[in-house]
Specification:
Helix content of chain B: over 70%
Structural class of chain A: mainly alpha
Number of strands of chain B: 2
Order of helices and strands of chain A: HHHHHHHHHHHHHH
Largest sheet of chain A: none
Oligomer: heterodimer
Radius of gyration of chain B: 18 Å
Mean pLDDT of chain B: 86
Distance between the termini of chain B: 55 Å
Helix content of chain A: over 70%
Shape of chain A: globular
């Protein structure tokens, strides 16, 4: 092994402070600014009042605790999927399979919650644990296939998404459908398997508000991921494999092993998005409940620059957009597609900035 | 029994086949194209808008192809010129296409379909169906028997070879991606022309399925399109709903098969050497 070459490959990953600042703070803020500006321009050219549009955005998200509760509720699954994508990304892996992983995990939680009747202090951790294991298993398979056979994880996670959709559809229509119902959903889980709403804990939220304790779990997960990535041995291994695989191998880290457990961890975190849905909100498994959270997670990770706290902020922004999309549709008659289109442009813009910077950096 | 399934197999396989051919051009030039889904969707949308606006299906086809090309151009500018991550860009393209079409969703008005040609022994199908085998063979010849194809493949296999010939990798990658937009656009037009209207997200994962066919067919036009016929047959079986096989199993069969092939249990599937790698 050539030592100077190793050192060169490590130092290539180093970016100047000003460029780092630009990439981490200025570029995402510019992207968000550009996003709202271009949405406003489109609204203006529709012949509607752009200022009114901005006013509705602010009112819709921040007028009351109730409204903000909805924003955080929408953000909850996106925090998990964003973290899942980022964890993979940090070690050079692309987990596009969050969508499938969260379905598998959600079903595992629902299955345990339906079939076991235990006191809450046992059942809740059991449900969450089994969901995380199910998500981890679904995520680790593409990781294993990559480590063992070199099969690209992007393709395999996409394939496993579709397999998960079909499997869920089968389970929920042919095996576990709630009797006497046309809706493809399972019966409700036991009372003791539910994650309480925050409204039942604080009086500032009305009882109707769906924000639940899973948001606090999401915040805990953010802190966990930050500590895990920054201060633990495993986090170091993960980042090293992502930045300089040769160096990692030279240091005695097996990149293949790391690949498998990173994908597993990523799947487990993505699975928590399913937990939030089943145990925190709907209390049952509904077929195709996720509106592309796994994919939005990619945008969230991108905008949050793969930093756990950045991801939390980005998830709240996307949660706001999801809520606002509904309100502008009702109040102004602007189709929700406007925000989707904007999101797509935001993603492309962000990766372009990153690409240009990488090119200039020569690494 | 199986013969009855031929018409629906052909109808299912045709849009897949076009998108898969498109995927082959782009990936052979070294650019991962996850945006096939979005390019098909916007193609279908363009077809309906164009046909409604002019009451000519040919004009609709033109607009559909144009829309597919426009998204492909965006993909090319982002990935080739700005070196953006190809996978993320593709996903961005898909979300963008979903958003644009939902924003501009036309009234659910029926539009005419593309002309059907009556052929002896085969039956009456949209001419696009007959176009697919022709393009499949043409693509095979183009990619593997002409200098043009050699250069396009060199962009995806060996940048050094291109550089040695002082050819621009950028140009060939642009061409490959634009071809994929064009072909995916035609696939989308066919989809909309068969059902006569546009619905939100009507491609329903076909772009990803086409990508699976590309891999299943080892990045080759003949086997890639054959894979589409196989996948189309699985869908036709699922729709026919016979023999009591759960539809979901048939539905996930193409994905399982692709994983098996990708891993190398059956045959081998080898991507172009510098697929997804950016020029430094």
């Amino acid at each position: 092994m050539n030592i100077p070459k190793l050192i060169a490959s490590v130092s290539q990953g180093r970016i100047s402070q000003s460029r780092k600042f630009f990439l981490n703070f200025i570029s995402p803020l510019l992207a968000i600014f550009g996003f709202f500006l271009s949405c406003g321009i489109v609204v203006h050219f529709r012949g509607q009042d752009a200022l009114e549009f901005y006013r509705i955005i602010l009112l819709s998200g921040f007028a009351s605790f109730d409204d903000f509760g909805y924003v955080l509720f929408n953000a909850t699954p996106l925090v998990f999927t964003g973290l899942a994508v980022a964890i993979g990304y940090k070690s050079g892996l692309f987990n596009i399979g969050c969508e499938g992983q969260l379905y598998i995990a959600a079903f595992a939680a629902a299955w345990i919650g339906m079939h076991l009747n235990l006191p809450a202090f046992l059942l809740v951790p059991l449900c969450i644990g089994s969901a995380m294991i199910a998500g981890a298993a679904w995520g680790a398979v593409p990781g294993f296939l990559k480590a063992r056979y070199g099969a690209h994880e992007v393709i395999n996670t996409i394939m496993m998404n579709f397999i998960a959709f079909a499997l869920m559809n089968y389970l929920v229509t042919a095996v576990y459908q709630e009797p006497g119902q046309m809706i493809p959903q399972t019966p409700q889980i036991h009372e003791t398997a539910r994650i309480p709403r925050l409204a039942s804990l604080t009086p500032i939220l009305p009882q109707s508000n769906p924000l639940n304790v899973s948001f606090l779990i999401a915040c805990g997960c953010v802190v966990f991921c930050y500590i895990f990535l920054t201060y633990t041995r495993w986090g170091y291994e993960l980042r090293l494999v992502g930045n300089a695989q040769d160096v990692a191998s030279y240091g005695g880290i097996n990149p293949r092993t790391v690949t498998v457990w990173v994908m597993g961890l990523s799947g487990a975190i993505a699975g928590l998005a399913g937990v939030a849905e089943v145990m925190g909100y709907r209390h049952r498994f509904l077929d195709s409940f996720s509106s592309g959270w796994g994919f939005t997670g990619i945008a969230v990770a991108l905008l949050g620059r793969n930093n756990p706290f950045g991801i939390l902020a980005a998830a709240v922004l996307f949660g706001l957009l999801n809520k606002v999309a509904l309100d502008i549709d009702i109040l102004l008659g602007i189709p929700r597609g406007l925000f989707f289109a904007g999101q797509g442009m935001l993603i492309i813009w962000l990766v372009c900035i990153e690409g240009i910077s990488r090119k200039k950096n020569g690494s | 029994m199986v013969l009855e399934l031929i018409p629906s197999t052909l109808r299912m396989a045709t849009p897949l086949g076009f998108a898969a051919l498109g995927g082959i051009y782009s990936e052979r030039a070294g650019v991962i194209n996850l945006g096939l889904e979005g390019m098909m969707l916007i193609g279908a949308f363009g077809y309906v808008i164009g046909t409604q606006g002019s009451s000519s299906t040919w004009f609709g086809l033109l607009i559909g192809i144009g829309c597919g090309l426009a998204l492909a151009l965006l993909h090319a500018v982002a990935t080739v010129t700005f070196h953006a991550d190809q996978v993320v860009t593709g996903i961005g393209i898909n979300i963008l296409a979903l958003g644009i079409t939902e924003y501009l969703l036309p009234l659910p008005k029926q539009v005419g379909g593309l002309p059907h040609w009556e052929l002896p022994f085969i039956g009456s199908y949209s001419f696009i169906v007959y176009l697919l085998p022709v393009l499949m063979v043409a693509s095979h010849i183009l990619l593997f028997k002409t200098p043009w194809g050699l250069r396009l493949r060199a962009a995806g296999e060996s940048t050094e070879a291109l550089a040695a010939l002082s050819l621009s990798r950028t140009k060939w990658q642009y061409l490959g991606i634009l071809f994929s937009g064009l072909l995916a656009g035609i696939g989308g037009c066919f989809l909309a022309s068969e059902v006569h209207y546009f619905t939100k997200g009507m491609t329903a994962g076909r772009g990803y399925l086409a990508l699976a066919a590309v891999i299943f067919g080892n990045w080759r036009p003949l086997s890639g399109v054959s894979a589409c016929f196989l996948f189309g047959f699985a869908t036709a079986l699922e729709l026919a709903n016979r023999w009591n096989i759960p539809g979901q199993l048939l539905h996930s069969l193409p994905y399982i098969l692709t994983m098996v092939v990708l891993v190398g249990f059956v045959g081998t599937s080898r991507p172009p050497a510098s697929l997804g790698k950016m020029k430094l």
